[in-house]
Amino acid sequence: MAELFQNLPPAIQALSAGIVTWLLTALGAAAVFVFKTTNDKILNTMQGFAAGIMIAASFWSLLQPAIEYNEDGAIPWLPAAIGFLLGGIFIRGLDFVIPHIHRNATDEHQQREGVKTKSLNKSTLLVLAITLHNIPEGLSIGVAFGGVVSGNGQATLLGALGLAIGIGIQNIPEGAAVSMPIRAEGASQWKAFNYGQLSAIVEPIFATVGAAAVLIVTPMLPYALAFAAGAMIFVCVEELIPESQSGNNTDLATLSLMVGFTIMMILDVALG
């Protein structure tokens, strides 16, 4: 099985990994069939944990390889710097266009962002918010698998798998973080579950796009790696960290972030 996966085209590898992370989101969303109410302590803990995973993945799996890929260039850090900033700008642009909500924002002007619309309910806006966050996760998986065959000596199949595993782990609480609040608002279990799992449908799509883009234009690899990192960091700082700190469980959320960071660091160093 391992040899079969290794011989697959990188785009198919990325698609497969994206499907697995999507299914793990569905596993987390299935929490609505077990728990009846949302526990803020658990929710804040999960959000902090997810943020830690994403921050560690952004550096070890994406930014560091981007810098090392161009270490013989005139300005080794330039592609990583440009890609990183563009990734953040890209997510901000999507923020500006796609309607979504930030549940715990204290400023009412920031609670609802994107194009104004009255036709979308609160649950849909919450799903769109998480869907936005899953786009850079899918991209990061794609560029990691694409980098394995693009001539990047720092990229390995095990490293790409480690990144996918880390993102998959943090997708479990992320799925619950979508479905549980929707269930708490009165939606049926199946409706809440479907909303939760659908929030990650973009991951296999953008994983395939990321891998294909790197394979088509190999010189863009360091930019693509850093782009995915910038997008992930933007999501962490704008959404996950503030949400995890919005309740009365700030210390627990912070410790969970550190645990998530450590787990992803170990995964990347051990497998990369």
From TrEMBL:
Keyword hit for Coiled coil: no
Topology in the lipid bilayer is annotated as:
Multi-pass membrane protein
Species in which this protein is naturally found: Staphylococcus auricularis
Q: Name one GO molecular function term.
A: zinc ion transmembrane transporter activity
Protein name in the entry: ZIP family metal transporter
Subcellular localization, as worded in the UniProt entry: Cell membrane
- Segments traversing the membrane: 12-35, 42-62, 74-94, 223-241, 253-271
- State the taxonomy lineage: Bacteria, Bacillati, Bacillota, Bacilli, Bacillales
Q: Which GO terms describe its cellular component?
A: plasma membrane
InterPro entries referenced in this protein's UniProt entry, alphabetically: ZIP
**Location, primary (coarse class):** membrane
Q: Which family does it belong to?
A: Belongs to the ZIP transporter (TC 2.A.5) family.
Q: Could you tell me the keywords of this UniProt record?
A: Cell membrane, Membrane, Transmembrane, Transmembrane helix, Zinc
